Amino acid sequence: MSAPLFLVEALPTADTLTLDGPEGHHAATVQRLRVGEELLLADGRGGTAAAVVTAVGRGALDLTVTSRGYVDASVPRLVVAQGIAKGDRGELAVQAMTEVGVDEIVPWSASRSVTQWRGERGVRAREKWAATAREAAKQARRAWLPVVTGAPDESTAAVARRLAGAAAGLVLHESAADRLTTVDLPDTGEVVLVVGPEGGIAPAELDAFVAAGARVVRLGPAVLRTSTAGVAALSVLAARLGRW
Length: 244
Known about the structure:
Helices cover about 30% and strands about 25% of the residues. By secondary structure, it is α/β, with parallel strands linked by helices. The chain folds into two domains: about 5-70, CATH 2.40.240.20; about 75-240, SPOUT methyltransferase, trefoil knot domain (Alpha/beta knot). The chain has a seven-stranded parallel beta sheet, with helices on both faces. A five-stranded mixed beta sheet has the order 1-3-4-5-2. The longest helix is centred in the middle third of the chain and has 21 residues, at about 120-140. The protein is elongated.
């Protein structure tokens, strides 16, 4: 089994350090790491450090760094505008997309989103998505932490602007004739993928995205849930772009 990964604000410059705070508590109290066990530290921006536990305290570990590394950011970047979903479906989508390699997630307030994020509720909901992405990145041993960006509920117009500036803009829709497995993909820049909410993408929204230069694509004959469509599409893209 690979060594567990813990995220830190900055990687240590010295060869010894104490891992404390929430990450130290999780390592010492929840995972119960012991002297001699190995772990990974990552700053979420590509930097990594392997370390071995030299002492265990209350909610903290003393570590000795054994090696350092850096993982280049993947190109092109994979960005998903995810329609806000009700219940925990949005968080399920964020978790799974993080595990398969999404680089950025944009919460999209689609007209058919059953749940609407407003005010403080929206801020808390977006923070929950960011926390979900953080924990999923640790589970997946990712050196790069995906970011949750934009307003808590980005508008259709804002998503259209993002599509217009992308190297490739793609919209998942069951009516599409083109398959995601066959469309041309760029070597650099951003691939922006739009995933609709439970009720799907409204015709006016689809028109706005096409007018922005996006291409409408489908995965196959089945209509997937909003919590699974993004991860399925990212899996196709990861394979086609050579990430997998």
